[in-house]
Amino acid sequence: MPRKKSYTQVPIEKLRWRLDPATLSFDTTDDLEPLKEIVGQKRGVEAFKFGMGMNKRGYNVFVTGTAGTGRMATVRRLLKEISKDGKVPDDYCYMNNFKNSEAPILLRLKGGGGIAFKKDVRDLVETLKKEIPQLFESQEYINSKKEVMAAYEAKGKGFFKDLDEKVKEEGFSLVDVQVGQVKRPEVMPLVDGKPLHIDQVEAMVEKERFPKDEFEAMKEKHTKLREQIEQIFLELRDLQKEIQEKMEKMDRMMFIKSASRLAQRVDKKHENKQIKEYLDSMLEDMADNLQIFMPQPQTQMPGVSSLLPEADRFQPYQVNLLVDNSEQKGPPVIIEAYPTYRNIFGSIERVVDRAGMWRTDFSKIKAGSLIKAMGGYLVINLLDAIVEPGV
Length: 391
Known about the structure:
alpha+beta, 3-stranded antiparallel β-sheet, 10 helices, 12 strands, rod-shaped
């Protein structure tokens, strides 16, 4: 006969452990200090801190462990603790290279200096956009321009005054003849006190209404006078070119004088040789393109969508703030959740302009997490990274 088994009966309320709150030394968990140590990972934490303490090029820390053990949270927490007393790294800006647009200038400033410099340049450009058109509408500028034009107009009139006197002495007259949309003086012989075209006089000779020998002498004088007129027109073209160059030089000098005064505030605020050189170069480029300050006609190329944005004439004079550490209290800790080539190494974007052409410049350079983490720490999931092309 089988033996009868005996079992100890356990009450239901004793099947699980229950904490007696009366045994605790606090009322709520808010009264507790946060745990600073990583439970059960003493050697791992020490190894991690040792690796982070090797502040030299070429060293990286590889963290591994069982899934679900909080590796990422632990790394984030340790890096936050390690970096709290560290130095805030520099900001990085890209600026337009006005001599070679394919080689933009990299500017390195103290943390927080990049965003301040970008704002200062933007404010300077906005001020110039308001001040320069007013400069060229000022009475001082108008009077200076009138003086230059008056001097050259007098010189031009002197050419024709001397010619007119000589033409009259030779028995000819200067008559304005319409040629297309412009008028130009034509030498015409005087016959019975009336100006006639040389071809009309020749027709009179054929009809024996005008002496042939007198016409031959007249024709020779006419040819010489026309050559003198052509020479005067060449001199007038040179004079117009000289006027244009002098006006451009005057415009340039007035712009540089006014713009340099406005740019002094930015220069003095930052006291950086590279910034001074950039500001000088920027103003020189503006002086070469003063038309950007003038009202532009609203034109649209046929076949181009009106939805395409109009090109910003002042975009070359902006600053591309590549890395901004103005909000950092210490070295940045970048957790790259999607380690694609673009996210890690950055990119150079392209846009379609109103002419339908792909275009890029210094302002389209975008920083990746590798550059953003410069001077700090970059954390990536290795398994995610190795499956990405190019990474």
